[in-house]
């Protein structure tokens, strides 16, 4: 394959040197902030890899009441998406801690199970573009490109989906009127109504940053989902992902475009389950601020505590 066409396959059998502690912050190192917070709060946890989730599907999640996905779960196979959805539909609780989540449809090659294949298609925030006739996954025959283009936008799974990249300063959240709904009261216990949520952070000084996801009913956000907080403070360096606009016009950046935002979302699922989504990669990186004494940490602890409680959530009657 020529070097100017992109490489659709990657294998864990070769070293990936920028995915290590103290390495490039954009990758897995951000997730260590979540692990650090879980340790600090004394919350016991197990780690399930993408490979286990792909191979075992819903069985990998069945023993757990709560599943927490990390800061940047961008690449998901058919089996992985179905496993998360099955967990939610069976009454499991899902805390989606990241942004740019559940974005690319990818697949492990059946003849080379250590190799993951992704075809970039002709849309999305991508580092290369597929040649004509090369959008389908060679290993499985499935469509490649975005999950959105397979009719399964991330909004259908967790209520939010990729909206924009932040190339300058991070922002923060403000609570919405929907946050006052009694269904969401547990999330904000101990947090003042008018606080700026996450106007701090270890990287770029804000809980809304890097890549962010938003609520969108047209893309499948459940009708009964509550948009409990939304971002503020984004600037001209906050730019929408390419599938979010049809043509290049004025007013695309975060200072003018209402679609360039991160949304915090909560909704109930079948059989007593629920979903909480942060809509931002840097949310998890803000947990440890001020020795873990901050409103992002408090909100997360409230959610984890309630989601671990076996008392069922109830989908509202009007949903």
Description:
With 319 residues, the protein is α+β, with helices and mostly antiparallel strands. Helix content is 15%, strand content 20%. The chain has 5 helices and 13 strands. The strands form 3 sheets. Strands 2-4-13-12-10-8 form a 6-stranded mixed beta sheet, sandwiched between helices. Strands 1-6-5-3 form a 4-stranded mixed beta sheet. The radius of gyration is 19 Å and the shape is globular. The chain starts with 8 loop residues before the first strand and ends in an 11-residue tail after the last helix. The mean pLDDT is 93.
Structural class: alpha+beta
Strand residue percentage? 15-25%
The spatial strand order of the largest sheet comes to 2-4-13-12-10-8
SS elements, strand count: 13
- In round numbers, the mean pLDDT is 93
Head-to-tail CA distance between termini? 50 Å
Order of helices and strands: EHHEEHEEEHEEEEEEEH
Classify the helix fraction into a percent range: 10-25%
- Rounded Rg: 19 Å
Main sheet attributes: strand count, strand direction, barrel closure? 6 strands, mixed
What is the general shape?
globular
Q: Total helix count?
A: 5
Low-confidence stretches: none
How would you summarize the topology of this molecule?
Blueprint: E1 9-11, H1 31-40, H2 50-56, E2 66-69, E3 75-77, H3 78-89, E4 93-96, E5 104-109, E6 112-118, H4 154-158, E7 160-166, E8 172-175, E9 211-215, E10 226-232, E11 238-240, E12 263-268, E13 274-277, H5 295-308
Parallel strand pairs: 2-4, 3-5, 4-13
Antiparallel strand pairs: 1-6, 5-6, 7-9, 7-11, 8-10, 10-12, 12-13
Helix pairs in contact: 2-3
